[in-house]
Design brief:
Structural class: alpha/beta
Order of helices and strands: EHEHEHEHEHHEHEHEHEHEHEH
Distance between the termini: 12 Å
CATH class of the largest domain: Alpha Beta
Shape: elongated
Number of strands: 11
Number of domains: 2
Helix content: 25-40%
CATH topology of the largest domain: Rossmann fold
Length: 302
Amino acid sequence: MVRILAADGLDGSAVKALEQKGYEVVSQHYEPEELGKTLADFDVLLVRSATKVRQPVIDEAVSAGRLKMIIRGGVGMDNIDVDYARGKGLTVSNTPTASSAAVAELAIAHMFSVSRFLYAANVSMREGRWEKKAYKGIELAGKTLGLVGLGRIGMEVAKRADALGMNVIYTNRSGPHIHVLYPWKSLDELLAESDFVSLHMPAIKGQAPIIDAAAIGKMKDGAFLINTSRGALVDSAALCDALDSGKLAGAGIDVYPEEPCKDDRLLHNPKISMTPHIGASTKEAQKRIGEEIVKLITGKFS
């Protein structure tokens, strides 16, 4: 029997579909020091963002000889040492299309939240304050949105921003896409021209944050930063300094260098709209992720 470890959970409909095919699904989270040994009893490892699959875990699992496949339920695979795992003979896959719309909608939601003080006004009203004059916001229509990365999620954000009347520009590591109609800019140009900068690219292990103090210094005064991608892309201290000084007007953040977030400067900054890494946490996205996972597993073992 094929045994599957869903280390970070799995949609119920996918569990049912796999069990109907005769597979066993175990939903249980393990810390890194336990995970490798545990994988001696499993053919497939399913993870989202919480579980890190690094070389020691891979080595221990491979030495046991049973594990065949690692699947990341989502887009980014920077929590897995992908090349190393593949070099050891493991199949490593993700579900790149399933959660794109959900993450894109959250990025747009954070733009609304910071531009109209939704996060702050909600809290102040619950505390009994009626601070109508304190929350004069801005409209998204007519503003320039700079997308750092234009993959599947970036394109979904662009389409929604277009519909809101925003002017979309983008940059990425690989240069202009021939089939994309939005203007391509260098990173420096994008930072200087954008009212909102939204990050949509993977983090590269060992690479310095792409948004550091120098990058923030190139941004428009009063601009907003949105990060629903990876926490390692932003220097948190530099971001807080820019918010405190007024260089940046606000930030919307769903991802953090350390999760759960324990950075007091981030947690208590009144200019940050925060969510606890819920970009893909919609019923629709989780169902789509589950469906893709079922196809990947059955394709491997049928």
